[in-house]
Amino acid sequence: MLSIVLAALGVALLAAVASYYLAPGAWLRFLTWLGRRGAGLRSASVMVDGHRVPYLHGGRGEPLLLLHGFAANKDNWTMIARLLTPHFRVIVPDLPGFGDASRLPAASYGIDAQLARLHAFLDTLALDKVHLGGNSMGGYLATLFAARHPERVMSLWLLAPAGAFEGEASETFELVQGGDNPLIVEDAAGLARLTALCFCKPPWFPAQLQRAFLDRARAEAPFNRKIFDELFAEPVPLSAQVERLPVRTLLVWGDSDRILHPGGQAELRPLFADVECILMRAMGHAPMLERPAETALDYLRFHHRLPAG
Questions:
Q1: Is 94 a domain residue?
Q2: pLDDT digits over 188-228, tens only?
Q3: How far apart (Å, rounded) are the C-alpha atoms in residues 95 and 125?
Q4: Which pTM value belongs to this model?
């Protein structure tokens, strides 16, 4: 009997190893599901402006809505969400055009259209007021939403937001200006370059799962190019749209950010009437991925109005 059990376990192990190499996409989906479950997040979706908008939600307390960056998706927040769900009702959508949300070739994905969809998303979920956070493009949209609808936003949490276009250019911005956009990944070399630009110390990511990630990035690249052109072909700085925003704000940047220059923090700081700034040492562009525990603790301290240190 024992030999039969051991043989069955051996077959199961061999099958798992084989599937890891032959079907890495299935493993990536399984590990994504496992991460969501560990964070206390469940999946749901709503229809907004003709788009199916999937979102993750979980936890209890005041609502905290988190927006991902360009070419990213809702699972960029899964690692940090497990530290936030004990304190907040966390809600993380795929913005229309990204992740598992609808991509409609005839639709606009410019600033006004995306902000209108964000407003409709809040209405659909009956969210009267939220704490609003965002990274990169998500921080740009979060700031503009708060400027247009301050009555809907209790606080802002901005992690290296886009919109600081008047100071020193980042390495990535200079590449984009030269016609080479490293944010749009189409091959393994492009993925390696983006990883190096985005992180000081990249999170561990097995090679086989990188292959699955690359397959998805390659498939999404043409539509990402359309969205990038509509959002940033003629970038409008936040300083031209925001003035002394009264919403209490935590503005976080990594001192080694190669996507958006950390000098953007000083450029954006005067736009907020009540702002706290944190410059994280040895940090890249995505603190919620690179050091989620430290990033979450900074936010919880800010939220509970505790002194730094």
A1: yes
A2: 999 999 999 999 999 887 777 788 889 999 999 999 999 99
A3: 15
A4: 0.91
